[in-house]
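Methods — Computational structure assignment.
A single polypeptide chain was analysed. Its primary sequence is given first, followed by the predicted tertiary structure written as structure tokens.
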Amino acid sequence: MMHSHYQGGLLSLLLKKHKEKMDKNLKEDRSEVYEIGYLLVSSIPEEKVASEAAALKEILSKKGAEFLGEEAPELRTLAYTMVKKIGTSNHRFDQGYFGWFKFELSVKEIEAIKKTFEENPHMLRMLLITTVKENTYLGKKSPTASVIKSEEAVSVDAAEPAKEVVPTAPASIEEMDKSIDAMVKEA
């Protein structure tokens, strides 16, 4: 019983420290660099997606954000179905419009921004992170194998003959059983 009392006291202390830090941040007049990734519902007509993104950008602008980068929302297939309650019913989405903004903003304003984005009726999901000013965006393309320059290539010893690969037929079940029995006996 004393153990859970200790955990409760520790949790209470951690929460108090976190609140003090948050209160201090809100009182300070300093800026941080943030990135906000957002996923809009796919039920928005394609011709209205740009205006929805502009409205999100306007929210940031009104709070004094200095933009460092952005990507317009683009329809993407989701890794899994997401559910959003709209009105009194749950709606399922397999696609969404993903976009992001990278910006610098006063720490006093970020909680209001987060709340406004979360309350947007077209917002399926959003993620707000603190980041660095430098460009960390790697692009949309998957990494590709780099080409080895001829001077970097590994030389093959000419004295070593190339090994010939002889194709073999698939092993039968009896051969595999014998092979497994032999390995078991060796162990």
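Note: The helical segments are 2-27, 49-62, 110-119, 173-186.
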